[in-house]
Specification:
This protein is mainly α and 146 residues long. 82% of the residues lie in helices and 0% in strands.
């Protein structure tokens, strides 16, 4: 028993070492996923800010032209109507942004999926039942007051 089979301590040490290596590889995967998400977010924010600035300038020019053209006939009513239109457009965009944020997948979802597969491979058990998305949707509707 001295040379052919490793003892329980050595077997436990090998299992712990391999488990640690597996966790480290998953941590590297999570780091990569977070780096990609950060790069995407920064690019999206830059595009959003530039497009918002350009669109704001265009809307300002259109509003000034409409106000100048319609001032003699409608006076300040032109400004009120334009303000209401801009407020409605802003509300629509804000509502869409909130929907998209609520529908976004959780951060590190791919990493969690891979860790679940690792657990299944190691322990041979199916993943536990997860709660459906309905409670989150119900909570969001309750918070929105709808």
């Amino acid at each position: 028993m001295t040379g052919s089979r490793p003892g329980p301590v050595e077997a436990l040490r090998r299992v712990a070492g391999r488990s640690l290596a597996l966790l480290l590889s998953r941590a590297e995967f999570a780091t990569l996923e977070l780096t990609e998400a950060r790069s995407r977010l920064m690019r999206w924010l830059l595009f959003a800010l530039v497009s918002a600035a350009v669109l704001q300038l265009a809307l300002l020019a259109i509003a000034a032209a409409l106000t100048a053209a319609l001032w003699d006939r409608f006076g300040a009513l032109t400004l009120v109507v334009l303000a209401l239109l801009f407020a409605a457009a802003g509300g629509i965009v804000l509502a869409r942004l909130r929907r998209e944020i609520a529908a976004a997948p959780p951060l590190l979802s791919e990493t969690l999926t891979e860790l679940g597969k690792d657990r299944d491979a190691v322990f041979g058990t199916p993943p536990p039942e997860r709660a459906t998305e309905e409670p989150r949707e119900a909570r969001r509707q309750r918070e929105d007051g709808s």
